[in-house]
Write a structure and sequence with these properties.
With about 110 residues, the chain is an all-beta fold. The chain has no helices and 9 strands. The strands form 2 sheets. The protein has a 5-stranded mixed sheet, with no helix packed on it. A 4-stranded parallel sheet has the order 1-3-5-9, with no helix packed on it. About 0% of the residues lie in helices and about 35% in strands.
Length: about 110
């Protein structure tokens, strides 16, 4: 599946997992400049990709500002927030070790 975030909105995104089994194919979660504050709920490392398309100042993994956070207030870091500046971010639930291989960059 290829899921594309709308500009300036809050998108709550699920790939194949929303269909029930959680054993689907590879998903691409796509974000551009001015994406808003978005959320990915079923990112699978080594299967899915976060595609960043034309976000100003972000051309490689080294340009990303990724913080790990406790999203459910149980005192355990459980998710990652990728900040793009302004009010633009993506929260990836239940993933704390994002790596360069999890991303695809377009200038």
């Amino acid at each position: 599946d290829r899921l594309v975030s709308a500009a300036g909105t809050t998108d709550r995104m699920w790939g194949d997992f929303q269909k029930g089994a959680g054993t689907g194919g590879r998903d691409r979660f796509v974000f551009g400049d001015g994406n808003g504050q978005d959320f990915i709920y079923d990112f699978e490392k080594r299967h899915d990709l976060i595609e960043l398309d034309g976000i100003e100042g972000i051309e490689s993994f080294g340009d990303l500002n990724i913080q790990t956070v406790d999203t459910n207030n149980d005192n355990t870091v459980d998710s990652s927030v990728i900040g793009f500046g302004g009010n633009n971010s993506v929260t990836v639930y239940n993933v704390t070790n994002l790596a360069a291989r999890d991303f695809l960059f377009h200038a």
